[in-house]
Design goal:
298 residues, mainly alpha, 12 helices, 71% helix, globular, membrane, EmrE-like, transmembrane
């Protein structure tokens, strides 16, 4: 049931990402990382529809996180790229090639191998004052570093860096969500914990980073970085903060590493799909008929 709920959530996330990018890619590049970008997008029905799909996907993900460890749920959520690619395939009415089929097999096979070999289990939620939460500090610093690095680079590198930073924060958001849900299940006052209020803060910052990445480049460049970074961030933080455990014997560890490598490789292959590289019709044109990004098209 957890797998079915998580995959349904991944489907909605993938469809939502496609709709969001189609809207965000029309925005001026000057809006990248500016809160004004979200204020502009919120007036677009297509973007709102994408946000609605993503929100529903996150709700399903939260339900799954209430029943299973972050190390189980986040790799399954990484399959959202498969659903995004399928949606783009339907939109552009083109056939899948063998390379894309290989990417799909690597993603799904990598997730399955990780879950079977690693056998994630034993997760708990630390108290709000536990020093285990300090493990999130390096993740936040990494996300900030990716943003700082990307802002001085080309649009392509900028999009990948911002998207990766969003993925790191989404992994932290997953840990916060599970902790809040477990606190609620224990009958404790979840409204007295800082984790509950941190969830929307992290979500909004992640959303701004993601939309800025969508504004900078097509899904082919922006989405794979988020899709790969979120499960890795979630797994690491789940182990460090929530005391989730994986098999560490030679066979189990080899399977975990091989599964993650296969998953990331599959995401990279799927990200090269020409379906995800196609911008919406007319998205590069300003109202005055000019090119919105000059000569710096990725």
């Amino acid at each position: 049931m957890v797998i079915a709920i998580t995959l349904a959530g991944a489907c909605l996330l993938g469809l939502g990402f496609v709709a969001q990018q189609h809207a965000a890619y029309r925005e001026p590049l000057e809006e990248i990382l500016h809160p004004r970008l979200l204020l502009r997008l919120i007036r677009m029905p297509l973007w709102l529809g994408g946000i609605g799909l993503m929100f529903c996907g996150q709700i399903l993900g939260a339900i799954a996180l209430g029943q299973a460890d972050v190390s189980v749920v986040t790799p399954l959520l990484a399959t959202n790229l498969l659903f995004a690619l399928t949606a783009a395939h339907v939109i552009y009415k083109e056939q899948f090639g063998r390379l894309l089929q290989l990417g799909a097999v690597l993603v799904s096979g990598g997730v399955a191998l990780f879950l079977i070999a690693g056998q994630p289990h034993g997760g708990d939620h630390p108290s709000p004052t536990s020093p285990q939460w300090l493990a999130a500090v390096p993740a936040i610093i990494l996300a900030a570093g990716l943003v700082a690095f990307g802002m001085r680079r080309s649009l392509k590198i900028k999009a990948m860096s911002l998207a990766a930073a969003a993925g790191v924060l989404y992994g932290f958001q997953d840990v916060l969500t599970r902790s809040s849900l477990l606190t609620l299940e224990d009958g404790l006052n979840v409204f007295a914990t800082w984790q509950l209020y941190m969830v929307p803060c992290v979500a909004v910052v992640g959303l701004l980073l993601n939309q800025s990445a969508f504004d900078a480049a097509p899904l082919q460049i922006s989405l794979p970085a988020t899709t790969a970074a979120e499960p890795i961030s979630g797994i690491v933080l789940g182990v460090a903060i929530s005391s989730e455990r994986l098999r560490v014997d030679p066979v189990g560890l080899a399977g975990v590493v091989a599964g993650l490598i296969a998953m990331v490789a599959g995401i990279a292959i799927l990200g090269r799909s020409p379906f995800l590289a196609k911008p919406p019709e007319g998205s590069l044109q300003r109202p005055d008929g000019g090119d919105r990004r000059g000569g710096d098209v990725p």
